[in-house]
Amino acid sequence: MNVRDLRKRVPYQIQRDVLDELSVDQVAEKSDFKISTKEKLRDAVRCTGPRFKSCFLSFVPLLTWLPRYPFRENAIGDLISGISVGIMHLPQGMAYALLAAVPPVFGLYSSFYPILIYFIFGTSKHISVGTYAVMSVMIGSVTERLAPDSDFMIPGNDTNSTTLDIIGRDAERVKIAATVTFLSGIFQLLLGLVRFGFVVTYLSEPLVRAYTTAAAIHVIVSQLKYSFGISPQRYSGPLSLIYTVIEICALLGKTNIGTLVVSIVTILGLVAAKELSALAARKIPVPIPVELITIIVATVVSWQMDLKTEYGVEVVGQIPSGLQAPVAPAVSLLGSMVGDAFALAVVGYGIAISLGRIFALKYAYKVDSNQELIALGLSNAIGGLFNCFAISCSMSRSMVQVSTGGKSQVAGAISAVVILVILLKIGELFEELPKAVLAAIIYVNLHGMMKQFGDICSLWRTNKVDMVVWVMTMILTVLLNPDLGLAASIAFSILTVVFRTQLPKYSILGQVPGTDIYRPVEEYHQVKEIPGIMIFRSSATLYFANAEMYIDALYEKTGVDVAKLLSHKKKLEAKRLRKEKKAAKKAKKEAKKRAKEASVVSAFYQGEEPQFSETDDSGEEPELSHAEANGDVNKLSVKESKDVATVEVGPDPDSTLPQAIILDLSPVNFLDTVGVKTLRNIYKDYGEAGVQVYLCGCQRGVVESMEKGDFFNEKVTKSILFSSVHDAVLYSQQGNSKENVNPVFTI
């Protein structure tokens, strides 16, 4: 006998009185204790020794984990991992600098300073921060927009000729990239200090994956000019990607054959080498540095064959040795890049925290989302002072760091040391490296993002709404560029949530025989409705956006349109009042007529002359009945009373109406003023129609909203609230009396 069958065979009984909300408060002794806002604020700013120490250590996590670093267990793995990741930083940093439209050496700077800062302040042990393709292309869109080539054209020797001031252009673009990076770091730092780490919750996984896929398309298009050796016009704003593709197609006839050959050979060589590396990964503990080998071979070939002079292949150019002194950001440019900086801050943080949580879950440790914001903010803000561009974490480098034995951020620090050695001694050796090779490295590294198109099929099978979010994010980001595309995608994603709350599932619940369990009657064959009781439930919360639809669904599901019912009742009431008024008028007229007739009879017996002042409708004197002729005035009053009493007052109450309607509010997690008013109107309208309304499953916040919204009064008390559907059903079945009700649940 398995555990499931055994659990089915265990019966239990519960015997208690039916409890409404007031009874529950009394039995459970509800506490009214609340902490005032003043006390909360005072507690938040209170500073004690232990609290200051805890805050300081949480702000600088390095001081917590480094003294307890297990040197024997982790040192070798972190050393090998750090060297491997550092080798990867070299080609990726130089390649992604092209995406940011700055000289390649600044990609190496971005792979050094931010890593050291994150080593001190970061909380993730396994992610590899540094240059990232999506961030680089977003930086590139800013630098090329604010410093286009057209602003740096200088007159040539000929009258109609102009030349491009590359040195001036690159200097300006470096300044722009550093400034927007600094501003994005400030945004991240401020968001972290105000504990705004939850903002990443608005970036769902389908949205992030679609966004990175669309950004990869932007990256590929931006690198085509290096692969074909052409110089297309730079476009900005919505649809700029489309215009760029059209421009590139128009310039294909001017392709530099030498550059194209270098690109094709490099791509084929990289793909083949990566496949061989994947096959050899089972036997070799350290991954083969394919990109490093590629740039070394390409540099040697370019130097030996003089590709720049002989074939016009564009090369990296001068790479200065050493480090640069910090430079203050260009304050005058801050106003023109606020939106771009905020988008960089959100995207960089979203990618880093998503990957960090994956590794934290896998290796059983916690990543502090707010501290990650602070760490990334400091990395970008300080890095911006040293002419770095915005960083995030890379999936490929992080996977290498983990697979080669990296267990802490010591591996990241070692990779920064590798980059430092390259900057000081080796960097100038790569001056003859063709830019087409760097573009090819980018193409091959993006193949993982291109595989994310397969998400469409999997999401179609699992969740079509998420699939729509994926597709729309992809389309919006491709058409509107990464900055506007991100904002539009988040807005669309939030709208899907709103639409889902506006279109919830409405159900009539029935009882599972022999239990206190209630389920939708349309989904179960054995679930039966309770006679005379309608139990209604919505799968979403009740607020202003769906309040009207909630009422319409309630009318439809219960089969009782209260609005029409009350309208019909008012018409009947008006008709009854008209009949009463007409009957009263007629009775008054008849009484007056009979009084005069009685006076005639009395005068006749007294020998007086009768006086006639009125006649009936025929103009004749009215005939007297036998009772009237005998002066039986008492019978006249009885007849008058009988005439008034027999006025029709309307039909009997509709027997098809339910005795009670129970609203299951267990899915409702909050109520706004419109929601409270909706419930109040439902209770009032059904009450006027003779149907009692009960509410059950109300959460504490919902009850408090009802109290603040003046839902309860002298006539409407908490006695209509019940903890469970079954309590409300039993109360309804006992004729609204809780006395002597002792339900027994046997399951």
UniProtKB/TrEMBL annotation:
Annotated GO CC locations: membrane
Location of the protein in the cell: Membrane
Ranges in a coiled coil: 567-601
Pfam short name (any one): Sulfate_transp
Entry-linked CDD domains: STAS_SulP_like_sulfate_transporter
GO MF term set: secondary active sulfate transmembrane transporter activity
PANTHER family in alphabetical order: SULFATE TRANSPORTER
Listed name of the protein: Solute carrier family 26 member 6
Source organism per UniProt: Cyprinus carpio (Common carp)
